[in-house]
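Question: does this match?
>
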Amino acid sequence: MKFKLRQMEVFRAVMLTGSIKGAAKLLFISQPAASRIVAHTEATLRLKLFNRVRGKLVPTPEGEILFQEVDDFYQRALRVDEFAGSLAEGPSGTLNVSSSPCLGRGLMATTIARFAARYPGIRVNFRTTLLNDMAQELLGNKVNLAVSVLPLDHPNLLVTPIMEGRMVAVVPQGHALARLAAVSLQALAAYPLIVHHPTLPFGQLVHSALRHCNIQQAARIDTYQTDMACALVCQGAGVALVDQYTAAFWPELRVLPLQEEMKLTPSLVRSAFENGRSHIDKFVEILTAVAQELQQKGGARPGTTPGPQRQACKTPAGPLASGG
């Protein structure tokens, strides 16, 4: 093996930091040691990986290409290390979970909190993932299970619907539409409309519904983030079409059901090649119970009463959720 693991580690550190000094600090080794390893790597591989320009290391094209492979290998090595650690922890281990961003603050936060309280020995790693990336994460073993806001169609995924929801309209309190019990897409189109970008699943869903209703007006603002759509409504930029799960966290907005149904089907997604780890089933049990509770409350966040509250607009703290 010409390219040793230690050489890969030092090469990657230089690429990340841009210097021998930075790599040495990152790896807690001396600068001369890092420099020798880089020089030895270039000699054994017979590749020039860096050009020295005014005292700085600039990657060659070959160095850039090699870094892509090394970094991918390094990330996989980290996952192997984490997996080995979880084996050493015994049956407790680690559970890696992802969900669509719009389900993070309600369904997933409640489920994870209950799971952690009931099974303190099992560590949970949680991330939000767009629908377009969910299959790759599951089949690449980056996560053990995922929860999607819309069903995924993939031959190697097992998809089980757990609840049902809708897209809704959000308008400012006091808006002309706010007094309605439900609103049509045609009525919404009379105002500046804020929707998800058509490349996103939510955007495709909304634009398809608009076309079906023969509404030709283009949206005034396209966004990639659901919370941003709500924030824009709060600032008077228009009215928006969003999922009911995100809308539940904006009580300062008036949430209106749509006369034209746009159904959402949050679903549990697992790999068909999953080896049946017991703590996944434990998580699914709690997740299903929380989903049933939310379904009964109409998708509102646990512990709250569904329905709008009249408050001054403010943007909620925390990262913005991406559409889909």
User: Anything to note?
Assistant: The two ends are 44 Å apart (CA to CA). The chain has three domains: 5-86, 88-163+265-296, 166-264.
